[in-house]
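PROTOCOL LOG
Step 1. Enter all chains and additional molecules of the complex.
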Amino acid sequence: MHDDQETPLELTSELVPLFVIAKGRALPADHEYSRTALVTAQEGMSAAARTLTPEAREVMDLVSDGLLSVAEVAGRTQLPLGIVRILIAHLAEVGLVFVRPPTPRAVSHDRALLQAVVDGLQKTLGA
Amino acid sequence: MYLDPRVTTAVKVLVVGPFGVGKTTYIGSLSEIVPLRTEEEITEASEGYDDLSNMPDKTTTTVAMDFGRRTLNEQLVLYLFGTPGQERFKEMWEELSRGALGALVLVDPDRLDEAFPVLDLVEKFGLTMTIGVNTKDGMPKYDLDEIREALHLPDEIPVVNVDARDQQSSAKALITLVQHLMSTLV
Ligand SMILES: Nc1nc2c(ncn2[C@@H]2O[C@H](COP(=O)(O)OP(=O)(O)O)[C@@H](O)[C@H]2O)c(=O)[nH]1
Ligand SMILES: [Mg+2]
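Step 2. Run joint prediction.
Step 3. Record the structure below.
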């Protein structure tokens, strides 16, 4: 066995993202990466995903083909929501993904928007 | 599986109610994707303190929550989150209620007492609500006004019948909720 000081830390893939984030970085503010934030890969960035941890790569692969909510990323990867938030925060920070923050109340409670919700639901009835 | 790339706005509604009332069924009726689930840890403070660490005793539990999605127009998508109605899930309620259009509260008319903790949470988080009475056999048995009275609901809160298995009936209940929210805007 090598001296602890010299040996690079071997972390299980599960621990890596937590370790990376914990290294002086703040956990993502809850609301920025809450479940209705929308995520997609930045164009031309999927190649850069090769250096990521398996979980981060899984997220990156998933959002390379289109736009999904944070909730869907968690649902489709079957990773815990908390981990997915941390991974996405990290991927956004290094410029691999684009994140559209959740719709603020002032926007979601706008009358025109609410009418669009009603109209969209009414299409369901017409079918 | 993916959203229309033109989608810019995601809105959400909480589908709440006691276990077995029909939340999963309701979400499945309206969702355009096969409903998915998220797994997350919640921290529960248990009573007393751990003598050794002098830290509050906490336990973590994994909670699975199902949700669905419906695209309303090329720029607008709606997410429906099935949300359990117990006090111990209030951490999740905090995030879920932020910016939400409101809560559709599903109630079983034969088990109305189970709705009270749910109604308390909806009120606590200031969510606009509509009550959907899921009769489960498609035949409303009770007068909606009787249900309103039993639940001590003020007149302005809509109470409707809903067949959670039926897409149109489910959509109607949601339209009622959104129109109710519009009526409360100044
Ligand atoms: N006949 C009938 N059964 C229903 C209806 N809604 C739910 N159920 C059944 O009631 C049970 C509980 O429903 P579920 O949606 O899982 O409730 P949840 O615990 O609130 O998510 C399931 O076996 C459903 O098939 C309904 O409108 N009609
Ligand atoms: Mg359920």
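Step 4. Note key features.
The helical segments of chain A are 15-22, 54-64, 70-77, 81-93, 105-108, 111-126.
The domain at 18-125 of chain A is CATH 1.10.10 (Arc Repressor Mutant, subunit A).
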